[in-house]
Specification:
The complex is a heterodimer.
Chain A: H1 3-16, H2 22-25, H3 28-43, E1 47-49, E2 53-61, E3 64-70, E4 75-77, E5 92-102, E6 105-113
Antiparallel strand pairs in A: 1-4, 2-3, 3-5, 5-6
Chain B: H1 11-16, E1 25-27, E2 32-42, E3 63-69, E4 81-87, E5 95-98, E6 117-127, E7 134-137, E8 140-142, E9 147-151, E10 156-162, E11 165-178, E12 186-189, E13 195-199, E14 201-210, E15 217-226, E16 230-235
Parallel strand pairs in B: 8-16
Antiparallel strand pairs in B: 1-2, 2-6, 3-4, 3-5, 7-9, 9-12, 10-11, 11-14, 13-16, 14-15
Classes of the chains: A alpha+beta, B mainly beta.
């Protein structure tokens, strides 16, 4: 699966909170990080509204890609339906992802912030 | 002690606001990066004329985004550049582009009284130690004889400017280890067999840094830098001819 498709699919699954499907597109530290964040959302009884997007996807090498993650169209809602989105959260995050093949299918194995980069 | 941190992040973490690209000082495996940030505000006072009687108000040059090397200027080329908001003509730039302020929020949501356009600007100074030079004497001798190796033990201070203020990083050599197994800045070694050998030292530097307006932060981390490679030839022993009888 091309990187663009893989990333789109991951973001769709993540936006929908489909934890059981994470391992279809994620592995390694990317998977544990996504599961941890999802678990935190559940503990805090928060839900996400809206969708994350990405842009400026660039190939750094065969398995490494840089992109900007845009969370500006998402909100965090608590149990009472109040908007509890952090006011100072970065809306565009410079990211880097690594992919690898597992039984013939491509998965994201690492998802990290690109320090000192800008979107 | 600071160490290089990999900031793992997921999409959900980013939604939660847990993926901040913090500005700070990072001591990496081979490089130190000092990041400073300033929040600039273009308040509602901008563009207003002075009310002081008799004085003549001259409008300041417009804001522009000025591209400079991460060393803070245009004189010392580095592998990265940053965009800095500054008044046109105030500093030398590699290139300039129009500064577009962040749009103001809708006036219907909140009062616009006292709301300023603001932007956080980051400047980064990245530096690493210069490769320490290693030497050998002689570079060729019999394999059962000693070769003397030594590597520079010089403290290096690298300075730059962030937002016009000086920042410095000091690299102090603390120890050295050699590819053939010895350690120390000056060592002797016998190869014990003939052949061509490559030798190099790995120098361990203590990292101290001085941020804007601060005093030296001592032992913020360490960096290991390999020296140049030395080629050494250990010669076979000469044949001896002895007359018997």
């Amino acid at each position: 699966m091309p990187a663009e498709e893989l990333l789109s699919e991951y973001l769709e699954i993540s936006d929908a909170g489909l934890e059981d499907e994470f391992d279809r597109v994620l592995a390694g530290s990317a998977l544990s990080s996504a599961l941890d964040a999802n678990s935190l959302m559940q503990q805090l009884n928060l839900s996400q509204l809206g969708e994350t997007e990405f842009y400026s996807l660039q190939t750094l090498d065969d398995e490494t890609y840089a992109f900007c993650l845009d969370v500006s169209k998402t909100k965090l809602i608590d149990q009472s339906g109040d908007d509890v989105t952090p006011v100072d959260r970065p809306l565009q995050v410079p990211m880097v992802m690594k992919t690898d093949y597992f039984s013939g299918s491509s998965k994201i194995t690492e998802l990290d912030i690109r320090r000192f980069s800008k979107c | 002690m600071l160490v290089e941190i990999i900031f793992t992040c997921s999409a959900t973490q980013a939604v939660l606001g847990g993926c901040a690209n913090d500005c700070g000082t990072t001591v990496g495996a081979s490089e130190v990066a000092i990041c400073e940030q300033q929040r600039t505000e273009t308040g509602s006072n901008e563009g207003k004329s002075s009310t002081t009687p008799g004085s003549t108000w001259t409008p300041p040059p417009p804001w522009v985004l000025c591209e400079v090397y991460v060393s803070g200027g245009v004189e010392i080329p580095t592998f990265g550049t940053v965009w800095v908001k500054s008044r046109q003509g105030e500093r030398e730039c590699l290139s300039e582009k129009e500064y577009i302020p962040i749009p103001k929020p809708d006036s219907s949501s909140k009062s616009v009284e006292g709301i300023n356009d603001s932007q956080t600007l980051q400047q980064i100074f990245k530096t690493s130690p210069t490769t320490p030079m290693a030497y050998v004497s002689p570079s060729e001798r019999y394999y059962d004889e000693q070769f003397s190796f030594w590597v520079e033990k010089t403290t290096q201070i690298k300075s730059g400017t962030l937002f016009g203020e000086a920042v410095s990083v000091r690299f102090t050599p603390k120890s050295a280890s050699w590819s053939f197994g010895g350690s120390g800045f000056s060592v002797a070694h016998i190869f014990g067999e003939k052949g061509d050998f490559q030798a190099r030292a790995i120098v361990n530097f203590q990292v101290d840094y001085k941020p804007i307006g601060g005093s030296w932060v001592i032992d913020a981390g360490s960096i290991q830098i390999p020296s140049n490679s030395l080629l050494v030839t250990a010669l076979a022993l000469p044949r001896e001819t002895r007359l018997i009888g």
